[in-house]
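Sequence, please.
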C-alpha cells in the first residue's frame, strides 16, 4: 500500500502486518464517512 513500509515485506507474515493495519484503518474510516454523509443534516 505504501511505497515505504514500517516493516519490510521481505519478512513474510510480520511484514504484511502493517499493510493489513493500514488497510483496515482506511476501510473503517471510509465506512464511518459514508455513514456520516447519510445522516440528515
Amino acid at each position: 500500500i505504501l511505497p515505504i513500509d514500517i516493516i519490510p515485506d521481505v519478512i513474510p507474515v510480520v511484514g504484511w502486518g502493517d499493510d493489513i493495519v493500514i488497510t483496515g484503518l482506511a476501510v473503517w474510516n471510509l465506512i464511518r464517512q459514508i455513514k456520516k454523509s447519510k445522516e440528515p443534516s
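The mean pLDDT is 81.
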